[in-house]
Amino acid sequence: MPRRARARGAPSAAEPSVLAAGMVLAFIVFVVPPLLAAAAGGAGNASASTAAPAATTVPVDVGVVLDLATGLGKKSLLSVKMALEDLYAARPDFTTRVRLHARDSDRDVVTAASAAVDLIRDERVSVVIGPQSTLQAEFVTYLANKTKVPVISFSATGDAAIQYHLPYFLRACAKDSFQAAAIAAFVEAYGWKNVVVVYEDDNYGVGILPSITDALQDVEAHIIYRAAIPASSPDYLIDEELYKLMTMQTRVFIVHMLPGPASHFFARAFAAGMMSEGYVWIVTANVGIVLDVLPQHTVENMQGVVGFRPYVAKSARIIDFMSRFDALFRAKYHQAHDVRMARPTIFQYWAYDVAWAVATAVEKVNRVGFPNTGFQTPQDVGKNLVTGLPTSTAGPELLSSILEADFDGLAGRFRFVDRHMDVPVYEVLNVVGEKARGLGFWSPGSGLLRLLNSSFTEDQAKSSVSASEVLKPVIWPGDSTTVPKGWDFPVNAKVLRIAVPVRHEFKNFVNVEANHNTNGSRASGYSIDVFEVAVNRLPYALRYEYIPYDCANSYDQLITQVYYKKFDAAVGDVSIIANRSKYVDFTMPYTESGVSMLVLAKNDDRTTMWIFLEPLTEDLWIATMVFIFFTGLVVWMIENPKNERFQGSKWKQFSTSFYFTFSTLTFSHDQIIEKLHSKVVVVIWCFVVLVLVQSYTASLSSLLTAQRLQPSVTDPRQLLRNGHYVGYQNGSFVHAMLRRLQFDERKIKVLSTLEEYAKALKAGSKHGGVSAIFDENPYLNSFITQYGKDFQIVGPIDRTDGFGFVFPRGSPLVPDLSKAILNITEGCEGFQIQKKWFGDATPSPEYGSPDTDSVRLSLQSFKGLFIVNGFALCVMLVINLPEFIRAKSTELRDLSLQRASSSGEFASDNEPQQLQNNNAAPGEPLQIERETD
């Protein structure tokens, strides 16, 4: 009993050792892990809760996953800490304090994922800031979505990170795809059509390809090659890829890499001589952002490079941050040898804003009740790495609070749009000397701008405005100010093999002859001359050789050879049609366009009985008659008082005056006028009549000639209705056009030579020939110049774009040659070439079918003459009107006296008296004429 009582009432000698063992175990379980975690965090683990006593604030754990061995990682972590210090200093009333737990991802995807697992499972962090790269973010996003822990990255710009719907991953930076439109606008502004994309061979590098491809296609530019370069490629592999790029014609390169691999790549490009004049290098935002902080030796290798980066306006807040950041960074990392590398970039601005947004969201959630136990432990803990992770109960509230953040941050307006920052304004940079010089900006609404407050409108941005008119001048590689044309002959350039079709007819276009001196061939003709003159106008030398190609009268075979690059080009009388343009590129046409109809001209003597009236229009006939009567009236008014020929009865005066005026039309009038004023009127009127008669004669001759020469057929439907035979040139695409016009295959004949053309038309359908030949206008004009006016061209019947030179799709020679051809055809040089091969004049398609309305004379053509004549008539009328009125008054008075005398008012019948004639000379007897009706 006593022994039992002692056992129950007091511990035995072995019990203290058992208690000690339990205490040690508890220490290992509950105390050691936090200490180990703190040790693993190293110097990076810090608490931001020191600003307030622990008893008055709630610590909230936040994880940070960065590559702490890199400059970006070190700077970003410092920026995050500065943001928390600034926030809590400005808002000491906050009841929460973010406690950072930093992990080094060591530039490794697996390490980054392991760090995220450790932070979520062991540290029970509520939010993870990071990871640093797109590759690391791809796996961490799945962890975030599963555990409902928001992950916010300020530097994972690659599009591959959020290809799927992962709501707990947020991107507090600009996506790489945003800059695609800015780069495409830059390429378009300089007129480059082909580019090469050099990208990092991983998910980050390929992420931009869809967006940059679409953006370039929108501006009619094409990616002709994609150079994938692994981030850890040795020098010899990069050199091999660079040599491959040197053997291409394209000289515009878009480089999409992270700063480290990009620096290595440009060092090799500089060594290969590809940073010289004529090259264009464009870097994307990840490199553009750090251009100001790259090492000096790297910048020296990138002279002339053009870059893009999101624009952040300089403000007092930015300047203060930069000053404090520079001092803290250099003091902590002893960065004194290169002051450039201690400067912050936009990545640090984004990191600052992210930390500010996270701390603000934590405070907001805490005020409505932040759960003390923030995680739910799953039942299957330990089965595997992922399923054993706890789930954050506060995650949805934190995510919602962060998404609602809207404030002015260091980098601008901090606001999430579809879980990423909005499309920013991009700054266009040019590496010159030791810094990146600003050229201008690009905004989503206005395009390229020199200044952000520019009045440059969106309509002007969409128009064809060159970059030199918008951006500041660019200093290109090789310290050149000349805009590169975007392509050049490769270092191993070969002589261009140009196919020339062998023609058996129409040799004035293309004629291939054997050259016995060189055992080769010689090409000549109108098409050859135009091509050679255009080549001579190019701003560079072009080496080429002609290779005869017998395409069996089918130019489609020639197009096929160029399409499969058996030839580098084709020069000849090749028609530009839609079906061919699907496979090759054509230069601007150098001949007129259209398909017309060649027919036999016929004489038509059936002239109308009133054709003599057609030379003058109705208004001119009326005006002529009016002026005839007006001129006769003025002449009569001037001559009537004193010229006996214009006196007498009314009928005599009328007939004399207007017969005289009408006789002037044939210049057969008599010299019956006496007064000077009348002669002035007649002289002016005779000049008007001279011009009218000469013009009338010429117009009537043209009408009579045109009436005699008429085409035998004027409409293809007439041929179809009558079942006539038609012809076309052997091998021409016109055959398909005739079938489209519903001509019967049995009524279509193939003709090869000019003699066959003439013979078939003269024979006609009834005698084994054809009634019409359908061909392109250049061929028909050539035929007409040789065979004269026995034939006529009617049309055009169908539209084509004329002849052009053929090149493979995307050939950079096409725009340069097109400009040269345009200058030739508009200048006198093109006329001289045409005169050399086709004579002084080449008839138009309407030759032989004149428009009768065009040769008729209208009043508009003679308005000036009639105005002068009318003015002279009016002046003479005003001058002579008083004298005419006095004469008429005297005549009436004399007539009254005569009538009174005859009635006996002044004398009786036995005493006849003589009446004095006022107009009679003194001493002459009075002569009185009896008035007759």
For the structure shown, list the relevant keywords.
ligand-gated ion channel, eight-stranded mixed beta sheet, single chain, alpha/beta, six-stranded mixed beta sheet, glycoprotein, 933 residues, signal, elongated, disordered N terminus, Glu/Gly-bd
Protein model, in words:
The chain has 933 residues and is of the alpha/beta class. 41% of the residues lie in helices and 18% in strands. It is built from 30 helices and 32 strands. Strands 8-7-9-10-11-17-18-19 form an eight-stranded mixed sheet, sandwiched between helices. Mean pLDDT is 80; it is low at 1-55, 379-383, 842-850 and 905-933.
**Major sheet, described briefly?**
8 strands, mixed
Structural class: alpha/beta
Compute the average pLDDT: 80
Report the β-strand fraction as a percent range: 15-25%
What does the overall shape look like? elongated
Return Rg in Å: 50 Å
Q: Residue ranges: pLDDT <50 for 5 or more in a row?
A: 1-55, 379-383, 842-850, 905-933
Number of DSSP helices? 30
Query: Span between N and C termini?
Result: 189 Å
Kindly report the spatial arrangement of strands forming the biggest sheet. Answer: 8-7-9-10-11-17-18-19
Helical fraction equals 40-55%
Pfam families: ANF_receptor, Lig_chan, Lig_chan-Glu_bd
Region (Disordered): 901-933
Biased composition (Polar residues): 901-920
Subcellular location: Membrane
